[in-house]
Write a structure and sequence with these properties.
With 92 residues, the protein is mainly alpha-helical. The protein has helices at residues 3-18, 38-52, 69-80.
Length: 92
């Protein structure tokens, strides 16, 4: 699956969780202006893990790593290149 397909899929998942038809790809998902609450974030993580066969380790669960659709897709891309459940974190 290429990046554009992943972005579409993650965007659709977020939109469905929010009960809307679409979400701006630039929308801030977490943080002070974030559109997701804590319960929805847990549901998002579970859905992403199942849909993309990735695992979020405790150190991966930061506001920054889940702050946008772009950051989530970057996480998925990096996770796909590593053994299942292994993620080295965000770029500095």
């Amino acid at each position: 699956m290429n990046r554009e397909e992943m972005e579409r899929k993650v965007t659709a998942i977020v939109a469905q969780l929010l009960g809307t038809t679409e979400v701006e790809r630039s929308a801030r998902l977490l943080g002070p202006q974030g559109v997701l609450d804590s319960v929805t974030v847990v549901r998002l993580i579970a859905w992403l893990e199942q849909e993309f066969q990735v695992a979020f380790d405790e150190e991966d669960l930061t506001i920054e790593s889940l702050s946008s659709i772009d950051r989530i897709v970057s996480f998925i891309e990096e996770s796909e290149s590593l053994p299942y459940g292994t993620y080295s974190g965000l770029e500095q």
